[in-house]
Amino acid sequence: xxxxxxxxxxxxxxxxxEIIALQTAVTKKLRGNISSGDQSLAAQTHKPFxxxxxxxxxKLIELKLEYDDVSKxxxxxxxxxxxxxxxxxxxxxxxxxxxxxxxxxxxxxxARFSETTPLExxxxxxQQLKRKVxxxxxxxxxxxxLLAEKLSGLKLSFDTLFVGAxxxxxxxxxxxxxxxxxxxxxxxxxxxxxxxxxxxxxPHYATGYYNIAHISCMKMIGxxxxxxxxxxxxxxxxxxxxxxxxxxxxMNVSDVYFGTSTDWNKKDRPELFTENFPTILKQAGL
Length: 286
Prior knowledge:
- The structure is a single chain.
- With about 290 residues, the chain is α+β, with helices and mostly antiparallel strands.
- The chain has one domain (about 15-285): Alpha-Beta Complex (Cyclic Phosphodiesterase, Chain: A).
- It has 10 helices and 13 strands.
- Strands 5-4-12-11-10 form a 5-stranded mixed sheet, sandwiched between helices. Strands 6-3-13-9 form a 4-stranded antiparallel sheet.
- The model is unreliable at about 1-10 (pLDDT under 50).
């Protein structure tokens, strides 16, 4: 993938050592997630999901992948619906991606505006970043999302189920050519931050996102018995997780979003904002 920013090329992975280092980082992150998930389930240390804060999300700038309808339908059949059946079986109150919760997507990276950056300045910086990340390229006929054009059609293979509290997700575990492409997109994101808003944007969440690609599948919205949570995890891993290992879920990228988290949620699931969330849960009988 020949991506560039301000004429600066983002280098491809040229050596086996670079690929091995990335694979090692991905494996380490996945193991850490699985371990922390087990601990949160056993210790009951999690706080149930209770909606999205529009104020806090307005401070976040996200680079995320969106998936096509065929992929989302496969996700629902193979992951979301089976998780929902198991959650009901073990009396775990939860919401699921594509059903009340956000549409299936993958966040590549996130940055947070500094608390001292005024709202109007955030808007200016966001527009500058969009142009540098190539999602708002000005053309004679309008604007184009060149990064989306480069990444559309990319196929990511999700082969690992992570069960935790309050979140459950599926992840990629293998560094293939497609994974290397999204790693280069992340590099563009960070170059843009350094060039445009280094003193206005706080540390990005590299430790949380950089070494993995994941899709959130399920969020717990209430309490459950520890023994039920562990039984849920065991059966989910033995069924859904096992099937993903044998036959990974391929998700095809259809678009790339770059902007504030609040703007994306307004488009995708405005009902998840904190002020709307109780009403939505009541309507859904949860």
